[in-house]
Specification:
Layout: H1 3-38, H2 44-52, E1 56-59, H3 64-79, E2 83-86, H4 88-93, E3 100-105, H5 111-121, E4 128-132, H6 138-145, E5 150-154, H7 167-182, H8 188-216, E6 225-231, H9 237-248, E7 253-257, H10 258-261, H11 266-270, E8 276-282, H12 287-297, E9 303-307, H13 312-333
Parallel strand pairs: 1-2, 1-3, 3-4, 4-5, 6-7, 6-8, 8-9
């Protein structure tokens, strides 16, 4: 091999090893951050507020919506009281009160989050909980200036997220949302999740590694639309896959409740088998339904069934980590950087969508 070619090969191998080591370092750092977020103190008054609230509404957009959905799902399962997850724009068009509002925002810079904060500040008798990656941010400042009933639960000090697809932010906020929701039940549940986190990481990594070659072996896998079906605990993963795959440019997604999908919605994907794939997410309560979907539709279109059994928060976290690992493994196969995903030239300078 010529010297130049050998040098290029060494550089390629070194870059590949460096990228692999970076991903491992990032993962270790993110799981350590998740642990610290699960250890975050929730004041007794906040736990009591959430435990006794007749209803709560979780407000978030983009990748933060995954964390809001995680918190909402756990709280609903444990308390059996109405909870909603709305985008800021949805809430502004139909504000709900009196109920506890939980605003989930990593940096508080999103204009929608600030608009919601301004609206919440005007209803001072309604308590507001903010889950955030940074204790001091523009959305929190709006609420502080209004002197409303504000409770801020922030992630511990950590290296800020710099990637466009903010995986670290998703993990940190989801851990905070889990911690907040579980504050309404005995603390042993949080302690068990903390103890089991390494096992969940291993299971999620194995599930993602098993999926990647099956997905990338499909013809035109990058141009397929993912239909995500959920049943039971994994319901919040609709938001996770929608944001992770969409923001990275890996795939467009649609989602359905698995049982509802079988009422006839499957006709659309059956009519375009070369442009579709199904991802079925279940826990142990819906494994039979997931297996039935794979058995009937599998011969006609690609179907991938992922099941993580266990108590709700453990199953939920295993599914969340699977989504994160799968996105990270598919990105290099598609030559996509999660830090700077590709955008068409016409969209390079699109940064603001507020009409200004």
């Amino acid at each position: 091999m010529p010297a130049a070619g050998l040098s290029n090969k060494w550089n390629t191998d070194l870059n590949r090893k460096h990228r692999g080591q970076t991903r491992r370092d990032d993962l270790e750092e993110e799981i350590a951050l998740a642990r610290r977020c699960l250890e975050t103190r929730v004041p007794r008054g906040v736990a009591l507020l959430l435990r006794e609230a007749p209803a709560s509404v979780w407000l978030a957009s983009g990748l933060s919506k995954t964390a809001a959905e995680v918190g909402r799902q756990i709280l609903t399962a444990e308390r059996g009281r109405p909870t909603l997850c709305l985008s800021p724009r949805q809430w502004l068009s139909q504000p709900l009160s009196p109920c506890v509002s939980v605003l989930v925002t990593y940096r508080g810079r999103n204009r929608d989050a600030q608009a919601v904060a301004t609206c919440l500040a005007s209803v001072k008798q309604t308590p507001v909980i903010v889950l955030t990656g940074h204790r001091n941010n523009p959305a929190v400042d709006v609420l502080r200036r209004a002197r409303c009933r504000l409770h801020v639960i922030a992630a511990p000090t950590h290296r800020p997220e710099s990637a466009f697809v903010a995986v670290r932010a998703v993990i940190a906020l989801s851990a905070l949302a889990t911690r907040l929701a579980l504050s309404a039940v005995p603390p042993v549940r949080t302690e068990v999740l903390h103890h089991k986190l390494d096992d969940l990481v291993t299971k999620a990594n194995d599930a993602a590694m098993e999926l990647v070659p099956r997905i990338t072996s499909l013809p035109d896998w990058q141009s397929r639309t993912w239909t995500v079906l959920t049943s039971g605990v994994p319901e919040p993963m609709r938001a996770a896959y929608q944001s992770l795959l969409g923001e990275s440019g890996l795939a467009s997604t649609s989602w359905f409740d698995a049982a509802d999908f079988l009422h006839g919605n499957y006709h659309a994907v059956l009519n375009a088998p070369s442009r579709s794939l199904l991802l079925v997410l279940t826990d142990h309560t819906a494994d039979r339904l997931g297996a039935l979907i794979a058995r009937r539709l599998g011969p006609l279109i690609p179907v991938f069934h992922v099941s993580h059994p266990g108590i709700p928060e453990q199953s939920l976290w295993c599914h969340l980590l699977t989504a994160v690992f799968l996105t990270r493994m598919l990105a290099p196969a598609a030559h996509i950087s999660l830090r700077h995903p590709p955008r068409p030239a016409a969209a390079q300078h699109w940064t603001r969508w507020d009409g200004q």
